[in-house]
Amino acid sequence: MEANSPAHHLTSAASLESLNSATSQAENNVRTLFVSGLPMDAKPRELYLLFRSYPGYESSLLKMTAKNGKSTSPVGFVTFATRQDADEARKALQGVRFDPECAQTIRLELARSNTKVPRPKQATPPTSQMGMLPVVGLQSLPQYANAGHELLVDSNHLLFEQQQLLALTVPQLAASQHLQMLPTSTLQQLAATQPLLAATIAAQQQQQAQAQFAQHAQFAQLQAAQNAAAQAAMISSGASTSSAPPCSTLFVANLSAAVSEEELRSLFKAFSGMVRLRLHAKGGSAVAFVEYNDIRAATQAMMHLNGVTVPSNDRGGMRIEYARNKMADLS
């Protein structure tokens, strides 16, 4: 075929169109966010805590980069299940302060390609002695590796079949040592039908994470920064649900008079740090105040329980906000 023949030009045009189509399709499949504007002391755990509560979150990666002779700076790559999930997280966190004590804000944009996070080999999960149904897969808590300036976090979550979760009673759940971290979306689905079970799972996840990270060799150095980042991330995520400033006391509304104090207590005490609960009923409605020992604990409970329906409540899901005053000031 001659180089200048019409057939040659048609073939070249078709090849170019195919290449452009493939490139466009590859770009549409990108579901990883590129995060810049991070402070120099940013930690992998802080990046993980900021993004983990958003739907579709899969993994995060923190790297130190240096280009064109500029000073080294941290950047992040956060991968979601779908491009839509990535876009939703980008819109929600664009311009947020990563460090509440620093005026610098983060910048989010879609990465050029999806980031693959190396995963350590997993051990075979032990067989339950309680006759617990087998679980699908095994999740690992974030693993840290230091190779030069690279810090890696693997935060893929264990997926449970909903039938397996519903088959467990609360005492079995409390005694089980095999439950790993569940995605927030799974907990929200479970909370619609089994609020006490969902609350217990969330509380146990928190306790397991704290226990395992306490054994990590770097925990002593990271603890202060992680606690500050966790509180900032949770407050940022929960800010849309409350018009009042962050407070260690929660205000619970949209309750009917049929809701009992003991029923509420069983839900809120599943989260560590609960101090006391007070229920006020008047006419056919009721409100409650729940005090925790700090803002971080209160925010954790609010994020997991807001919208959950108490079985005896005929008004739908609870509405939880930060109280305008602490419990001590309400006496």
From TrEMBL:
Keywords: Nucleus, RNA-binding. It holds the Pfam family RRM_1. CDD domains: RRM_cpo. Residues 31-113, 248-325 form the RRM domain. GO terms for cellular component: nucleus. Its main location: nucleus. SUPFAM superfamilies: RNA-binding domain, RBD (SSF54928). InterPro entries: Cpo_RRM, Nucleotide-bd_a/b_plait_sf, RBD_domain_sf, RRM_dom. It is found in: Nucleus. GO terms for molecular function: RNA binding. PANTHER family: U1 SMALL NUCLEAR RIBONUCLEOPROTEIN A/U2 SMALL NUCLEAR RIBONUCLEOPROTEIN B. This is RRM domain-containing protein.
